[in-house]
Amino acid sequence: MKKARLTAAIASVVALTVSACGGTSQSGEDRTANQKLTEGKTFTMAIGTDPGALDPAMTVLAVALEIGRYLYDSLINLDETGKPIAGLAEKWEATTTTASFTLRNGITCDDGTPLTASDVAANINFVGDPANRSTMTGLTVAPGSKATADDAARTITLTSGAPDAFLLRNVGNLPIVCGKGVTDRSALAKGKYGTGMFTMTEIVPNDHYTLTRRKEYGWGPGDWQREQPGLPEKVVFRVIQSTTTAANLLLSGELNAARITGQDQQRLRAQKLFHGDQAIPLGEMFFNQAPGRAGRDETVRRALVQALDLAQIGKVLTSGSGTPSQGMVTIEPKACAGDAVSGKLPGFDVAAAKAALDKAGWTPGPDGVRVKDGKRFALTAIYGTQVGPTMASAAELAQQSWKAVGAEVTLKGLDSPGTNQVLFESGEWDISMAPVTLPLPSNVVPFVSGPKPPEGTNFAHIENAKYEAEAVKAAQMPGVSGCSTWLAAESALIERLDVVPYVDSVIPTFGSNTRFKMNFGSTEPSSIRMYS
């Protein structure tokens, strides 16, 4: 059975990404078909950017949470159909407002101490307290949620601070740290106090992160067994920004895994390297709607979108392999199907874009840059450098298009920590081209509504009353019964151009002398097997 763990994250695939459970397509016959499983090996994987702090309750960076999957387990996992299977918990029950979990027996922390029900409750209560400003608040645990524990019975009981249509999946997705870590966040930033399959043994920022497998670990997804051939002894994450360099190192055998975008995919496929594929909303834009920002005006947002040939930009971004977006949630199996995008984005129309900017009071200046009330129409657009070279090319094409309608746009390529700092701390941006990958429609809520940074994660300062009303209704409908309402909520965002998803792309993670399972953009640690 294919098993997957729930994870959360801002696309750093992208800088912000919240990944979760479910499966992705895998390649057919590859080199490993003629190789044998081998013992004692190190699995070395490229990451496009340094992850920064690793505290799983205080980051939304995909790269940090990807490493976190090796260090911190969650209460439940999902199989390939979306059915819950055992994680740290062996039993569970949930409604939209309450949940209970019974821990497996014999789970230990990376320092050898037992994991208790009280430890798990403390994790939930930390995230549920808005005063702690956890990035997981509203994603996995609703603000105001409270958990209690019975250590003798190994049970945790939760009362949610608000109705949650996917309460089991969301709370079950929370990465669990050991008891000491709840109060020692500085140690968590270094990957300590883990409950997962590996423990952190070396950190060299901007170079590599080394993890060592815990021999006592035996509580993997579902019925996973400890004694299996081919498990890696160590895992090394190497920071390699160039996908071409990563592809070369895969072919030479110096790397075992790397996520590859652009034309380098072709030569790796030609060499029949194993790969696991994942669909992500690679082409997605947000506008800063904070007071004083041009993007606060819907007319301006519409003009900036009309100025773009999104189909052409999408081709550049995906090297011609993309498909039109249907929504913000791309992870399979989707809890809710449907198309929230088609017919809602304005078409490419330079004349209409210019007319809209005229109407908004932005008039052409002597140098071609528009001006309003003595202020130049100068904007800053950010994009993620870790995604690969096509992101810069697509950003440059957009920049040229915006210049044609009188916008002076400065591009800033940022790594994952840099994206995090700009979106959630400084706020010095106008257009973000860093996509957000999410597993559930309920996970969209804290990114597009509610508290803004630093109190919350609504980084674009979106205030969409229709979306909020529909999301509140949908949250009270258990599971898939609320799918049509979630679709209406997301449609409200796109109609107002609060979010502009325009192209999805399948991103392969290639493997050399290894096989693994992928779920939502990252490798499943317990699935990795090494070959000679």
Structure description:
This protein is an alpha+beta fold and 532 residues long. It is 26% helix and 23% strand. It contains 15 helices and 27 strands. The strands form eight sheets. Strands 14, 15, 16, 20, 21, 22 and 23 form a seven-stranded mixed β-sheet that branches. The chain has a four-stranded mixed β-sheet with strand order 4-13-12-11, covered by helices on one side. Strand 20, helix 11 (389-404) and strand 21 (408-414) form a beta-alpha-beta unit. The longest helix is centred in the last third of the chain and has 16 residues, at 389-404. The radius of gyration is 23 Å and the shape is globular.
- Overall strand count: 27
Biggest β-sheet: count, sense, barrel?
7 strands, mixed
- Class computed from helices, strands and strand pairing: alpha+beta
Distance between the termini: 25 Å
Which blocks of ≥5 consecutive residues have pLDDT under 50?
Answer: 1-25
Q: Into which percentage range does the β-strand content fall?
A: 15-25%
Which term fits the overall shape? globular
Radius of gyration, taken over Cα atoms and rounded to an integer in Å? 23 Å
Write down the overall mean pLDDT. 91
The tally of helices reads: 15
**Helical amount among residues, as a percent range?**
25-40%
Task: Please describe the topology of this protein.
Blueprint: E1 3-5, E2 11-12, E3 15-16, E4 42-47, H1 62-71, E5 76-79, E6 84-86, E7 89-94, E8 98-103, H2 117-128, E9 146-150, E10 155-159, H3 167-172, H4 179-183, H5 185-188, E11 198-204, E12 208-213, E13 234-239, H6 243-252, E14 257-259, H7 264-270, E15 274-287, H8 298-306, H9 310-318, E16 323-324, H10 350-359, E17 363-364, E18 370-372, E19 375-376, E20 378-384, H11 389-404, E21 408-414, H12 416-426, E22 431-432, H13 445-448, H14 465-475, H15 483-495, E23 499-511, E24 514-515, E25 518-519, E26 522-523, E27 529-530
Parallel strand pairs: 4-13, 20-21, 20-22
Antiparallel strand pairs: 1-5, 2-3, 5-6, 7-8, 8-10, 9-10, 11-12, 12-13, 14-23, 15-22, 15-23, 16-23, 17-18, 18-19, 24-27, 25-26
Helix pairs in contact: 8-10, 9-11, 14-15
